[in-house]
Amino acid sequence: MFATSEIELDQTALANNLNYIRKVIGKDVRLSSVVKGNAYGHGIFEFVPMAETLGVDHFSVFSADEALEVTNISMHRSQVMVMGFVDNAELEWAVLNEVEFFVFELDRLEKAIEMARKVGKKARIHLEFETGLNRTGFIKTDLVRAVEFLKKNLDHFELMGDCTHYAGAESIANYVRVKNQIKKFNKMDKWLRSTGLEPLVKHTACSAAAISYPKSRMEMVRIGILQYGFWPSKETFIDCIKHVSSREDPLRRVMKWKSKVMDVKEVNTGEFIGYGTTFMASENMKIATVPVGYSHGYARSLSNQGRVLIRGKRLAVVGIVNMNLLIVDVSECPGAEKGDEVVLIGDQGDNSISVSSFGELSDQLNYELLTRLPRNIPRTVIANETLTNQIPTNGLSKA
Ligand SMILES: *Cc1c(COP(=O)(O)O)cnc(C)c1O
Predict the structure, then answer these.
(1) Can you tell me the distance from the alpha carbon of 203 to that of 129, in angstroms, rounded to the nearest whole number?
(2) Is the pLDDT of residue 362 over 60?
(3) Where does the record place the catalytic residues (predicted)?
(4) Angle between helices 11-25 and 44-53 (to 10 degrees)
């Protein structure tokens, strides 16, 4: 291998996760697979076709450039929905290519309709409501104006949905806020329908909401982190396993990010390891260097915090994570040697590295670490031929 690390994507694990998610949401709720942030670091080009062979036919992205990547790689002409940024200049492209997009302000709405007139195709829009996140979304007074405008342009849009996004459904601390958001959304949805406009699907839930707030599932869920086999937070995980006796993690990591031991050596008691004085050997130790550092996506904040797997054992990162390498305490593995597989994220034997592996660091680290994995790490799909095309599509299917 030329690269210092590589990423394997396990189709069997993805099939397991999708089955689990479909079981949770039921057969009447559609699944949109969220693949923003280069499919949470898994790689849009590898992930999208793999998901499509497992019946996924709707993808959500943040921006037009990601939508372009999905449409370029899609084998089944899946629906693509942009939840965030589309420059006015790219609206024509979106309309022409039947890319759906959120509308949360009047200027985008007017430009979208203008483009729809120009190219003679309907703009496929989702009206986003402000319900309490205070990020994007129409407040009621602007929604009233949007509806007036839409009613004058009925031939130029398809109202694909109405939606909102929650302000932290992964934490019980936000329970009241999220509950209020659900109420507010339903009220605005009802009002919208009372005007005669009929959104095709109402959708509000991300992974955490879909697990912890069944009422947020509505007609479609937008699932990111769960499908990749990670939990939005420990709380969400506990919310989920408290109902099952086995207490086993129902998800499997799709990604295995792995490298190799580059070198091993002994360190005497009292010696500092790596730059500076952040780690001192309190006994005679054996350490291994791994050629992955922050320039390769291994967060510097994992200095003296990270865990990796070598020879099936969970081992600690010691000292500062450098630009190009990190150091692992392998004292527990006297046989560790150059060339041993090092798992940075994912499973090895019975052990697994995921969010909870990094101790009490922020839950958001999971998202951040994944999405910052550089694009130039080679990615390969470990396909499971017998799975391909056996899992039914959930909900509506594009004819
Ligand atoms: C990222 C995102 C999601 C998916 O979030 P997960 O926690 O990864 O499931 C859903 N909806 C919106 C608007 C998002 O930005």
Answers:
(1) 11
(2) no
(3) 36 (proton acceptor), 275 (proton acceptor)
(4) 60
Per DSSP, 280 falls in state B
Protein residue with its CA nearest to atom 3 in ligand 1: 206
- pLDDT confidence bin for 245, thresholds 50/70/90: confident
Lowest-confidence pick of 46-55, 227-236, 268-277? 227-236
Cα–Cα distance measured from residue 289 to residue 308, given in angstroms and rounded to the nearest whole number? 12
For the 255-353 domain, the top CATH level (class) is: mainly beta
How far is the centre of ligand 1, averaged over its atoms, from the C-alpha of 263 (Å)? 40
d(CA 388, CA 360): 38
Q: How confident is the model at residue 386 (pLDDT cuts 50, 70, 90)?
A: confident
User: What is residue 248's predicted lDDT score, i.e. its pLDDT?
Assistant: 87
DSSP classification of residue 342:
E
* Alpha-carbon 341 to chain mean position: 26
Cβ distance 186 to 150 under 8 Å?
no
Across 78-82, average pLDDT: 98
| Segments of the chain assigned to CATH 3.20.20.10 | 10-245+388-398
Residue of 215, 275, 338, 398 marked catalytic: 275
pTM: predicted TM-score of the whole model, two decimal places? 0.94
Count the neighbouring beta carbons within 10 Å of the beta carbon of residue 282.
8
> 240: CA distance to ligand 1 center in Å?
18
Q: What is the DSSP letter of 129?
A: B
Domain 10-245+388-398 fold is: TIM Barrel (3.20.20)
Provide φ and ψ at 102, rounded to 5°. -70, 145
Q: If you average pLDDT over every residue of the chain, what do you get?
A: 93
What's the mean pLDDT in 349-377? 77
183 included as an active-site residue: no
Taking CB atoms and a 6 Å cutoff, what residues make up the pocket around ligand 1? 34, 36, 83, 165, 206-208, 222-225, 232
Q: Is 135 within any annotated ligand binding site?
A: yes
Residue 175 annotated among the catalytic residues of the structure: no
Q: Are the C-beta atoms of 203 and 218 separated by less than 8 Å?
A: yes
